[in-house]
């Protein structure tokens, strides 16, 4: 029993890594000049070993791993570009040129191919397994705009001379040191198990068993803390208000919940790596789309196929087993081993893509009752700014207006990304791009009955974006006069372009009260990946979910998985 609990706890921790500490939310802007169609005009074969629905990072990672295991694999995406929330888009401004925008994740760590990989980083694991490099710019700071003042965040945040000492004094520095000390054994537990080793069948005896000696020096009781709310760890070490507020904001940016709702595992390696001496963050050249392109290349070079503009109407189920899919237009494709869904839990069980009567009634009821996280407001802006001016800026800023309202309050916390600080390729000379948004605090209810073509919708869009302009002007006071291109994203935009239920960021599952389900379902051969399943929300988590889904297709992948594990050790 002890080994079972240890395995399940470490399975959770091993796949949640700070590959994208702040998983910036999806924004579903039309994909003008996005990633070129991969297989949009070709037709799929009649059957494959594995079919994958949805090309978010979870779906792409699942497809990549399946191809590495030798499965014939096809991925089907409704839209014209792969990547889901990370697809990116381009807007051409007359007489100026092209502006390339990120649509979701833009805050990464651990991806730089010139730096040593950590086995617990799931996205890097997949990229390395594929032999795909994502060129990155390294940087080590970002801006903080708090009620207490304007600061530059570095790894010295909680040390002497850092932000905490400046605001709260020596006591806060001592508390921070105690918090980091308490995180050390948790970080070690997470790092002990490579993401790629995990699976949930008897094959784990071979793939996971070889790493169990790594836990000889760990305390199982400490490990069990990883599934509890991170606030349990924080409250035992910290009383300083700014420290607690900052931890809440970090947790919220990662999981969509404050520390009281975020599992400790999600913060385990993040805190250790984020504040390690010399720690750096990565800005992918070309934006997050470069990661999507690398994953897609890897899928295709290993024999997989990606079909864009290929909407799946139905998952075909026969005698309790998923046997294939039916595409819009009526074409059917057979799955010899599995169908993997990268849909949200609500879109899987509410859209009609599956026959819910084929599942146990309690299972469907529980899945449909998954708490829904809120949505976003976004501004994507192409603007004039010289290279000299950009060099005075940070690539990211975190803003909060009033700590007392809570990090999850509407029109309070704002995140800003200016990738042009590092990457000149995203905008014409003398120009830059930015993405500013409210992180999962926009309530869908005010939008749900609006027609996106109506005047009422346009007015609300203008009204609800003003807070973002207000915050942006605190950082770039004359931004309105500099602006050449503007795109506004709303919950309706999210819902429309990612088929995302209520435009949600993802499930609002509170640590200690609920847990994310594993990839298997009561239907044989139907697996799930993405942010509605274990381990949860965020780029590192969804990449891990894709690995787990691939590892759950069939026991016959064990030998290929062992070969891959040996290769990754080199």
From TrEMBL:
Domain Amine oxidase residues, every copy: 57-553
Cross-referenced InterPro entries: Amino_oxidase, CrtISO-like, FAD/NAD-bd_sf
UniProt keyword annotation of Transit peptide present: no
Source domain of life: Eukaryota
Keywords: Signal
Keyword Signal: yes
Region forming the signal peptide: 1-21
Membrane-spanning ranges: none
The protein's name in its UniProt record: Amine oxidase domain-containing protein
Organism of origin: Cyclotella cryptica
